[in-house]
Amino acid sequence: MNSNFWFNYEKKQEEMKSKPLVEKLEDNMEEDIITSKNDNKKDDKSNKKRSAFIKLMVGIIFIIVIMVVLSLGSDGNIIKEETDNDTNNNVNNEKDSTDIKDIVLNGDYKFEYLIDVVMQDGNKLTYTYIGSSIDGKLSGTIKNMDQEIEYLYKDNEYYIIDNDQYYLVAEEDIFKVIDYKYLSISNINNYIKKGTQIYKTEYSNGTVTTGYDILIKDIIINSDSDKAVTIVVSENDKYTIEIDYTNLISILNSNIGNCKVTLKYETIK
């Protein structure tokens, strides 16, 4: 068997030697081409696997995004919630606050003011003002604990009504806890214009709620306080304005620990 192996080997060597150089090169090239094709086939298979994996991952990510969007859209009936930057605040503030002022200054309306104050000693004071403004004449009722007082505002004067008698009184006799200037819709309108819109939320029932922060130093000129008054405006068929005056009122009256105001306006049609 060994003699046959060496005989075949020597015969092959002689055939290689007898082949021209060109034929040898062609043989080598054919071997290289076969090797290259095999390598290309391996690369093609690898690329196909990589492409299939990428498509699978993109599909999974797309499904996850759709699920997240659908879950957010159905949560709390909130359609849209946005926070605007300072550049957009000026535009939105002016539009929203002008709408608030227009409902009070133009036409007849009903109102309700709720003032909740907690003194530093823990004593709580609650004043409720309910009334209406018809043809420029404002009348209402003040409720404080068990006490109820009727009043009228006409020709820039306040009157308390008692047994069909009208008694002229000062403004501070009507608004004893905080000054009326902090309830004035014109002043609140100006506060909003100076403030920063912190959020705006639209609900599926049509209600739009917008929050604002107004720095104390923008309300009181000589104040260097970086604290803020927070105003939240909700509008639909009615306007509701909630104001946390604690940081402001506590500066003006150190006996007050907490002060929150809610104002409601509704057009009389």
List the helices and strands and how they pair.
Elements: H1 2-18, H2 21-73, E1 78-82, H3 86-105, E2 109-119, E3 124-134, E4 137-144, E5 147-154, E6 157-162, E7 165-169, H4 171-174, H5 185-194, E8 196-203, E9 208-215, E10 228-235, E11 238-244, H6 246-252, E12 256-267
Antiparallel strand pairs: 1-8, 2-3, 2-12, 3-4, 4-5, 5-6, 6-7, 8-9, 9-10, 10-11, 11-12
Helix pairs in contact: 3-5
- DSSP E strands, number: 12
Integer-rounded radius of gyration: 41 Å
The major beta sheet can be summarized as: 12 strands, antiparallel
Number of helices: 6
Written as H for each helix and E for each strand, in order along the chain, the element string is HHEHEEEEEEHHEEEEHE
Helix content: 40-55%
Which stretches are poorly predicted, pLDDT < 50 over at least 5 residues?
73-98
Counting helices, strands and paired strands, the structural category is alpha+beta
Summed up:
By secondary structure, the chain is of the alpha+beta class. It has helices at 2-18, 21-73, 86-105, 171-174, 185-194, 246-252, and strands spanning 78-82, 109-119, 124-134, 137-144, 147-154, 157-162, 165-169, 196-203, 208-215, 228-235, 238-244, 256-267. It is elongated and about 95 Å long.
Write up this protein:
It is a single chain. The chain is an alpha+beta fold and 269 residues long. It has 6 helices and 12 strands. The chain has helices at residues 2-18, 21-73, 86-105, 171-174, 185-194, 246-252, and strands at residues 78-82, 109-119, 124-134, 137-144, 147-154, 157-162, 165-169, 196-203, 208-215, 228-235, 238-244, 256-267. A 12-stranded antiparallel β-sheet has the order 1-8-9-10-11-12-2-3-4-5-6-7. Strand 10 and strand 11 (238-244) form a beta hairpin. The longest helix is centred in the N-terminal third of the chain and has 53 residues, at 21-73. The model is unreliable at 73-98 (pLDDT under 50).
